[in-house]
Design a protein that fits this description.
This protein is mainly alpha-helical. The protein contains five helices and two strands; from the N terminus they run H-E-H-H-E-H-H.
Length: 108
């Protein structure tokens, strides 16, 4: 099933991302579920790709392996720096501990 890349879909994705507290991360799939789009993690990536400002804490979205997704090197470096500034640590392999840092909205 392909979703239309509509303003409404993106608005729901951005609203879900804005709920993630500082010092926590969420996966693309987690945000898709929160936005009412289960199974559409790629839509989250598409929404982030067109984001033009920092009003949405885009840096808090990582992949299911606890890594920053491949993208333009400048953005990857910026995302890592922003997360580190929030107190999120990376291991030697460039992974974030999901058990430690993943946002669990029902517990935070």
């Amino acid at each position: 099933m392909t979703l239309v890349r509509s303003a409404e879909v993106y608005r729901r994705i951005y609203a879900a991302i804005k709920k993630i507290p500082c010092g926590r991360v969420a996966t693309y799939a987690q945000i898709a579920r929160m936005a009412g789009l289960p199974g559409h993690a790629r839509q989250v990536g598409y929404a982030l790709r067109i984001l033009k400002n920092d009003s949405v804490p885009w840096q808090r979205i990582i992949n299911a392996q606890g890594k920053i997704s491949e993208r333009e090197p400048r953005l990857k470096k910026s995302q890592r720096a922003k997360l580190a500034a929030e107190g999120i640590a990376f291991n030697a392999g460039g992974r974030i501990s999901l058990p430690r840092y993943q946002w669990k909205p029902y517990f935070d």
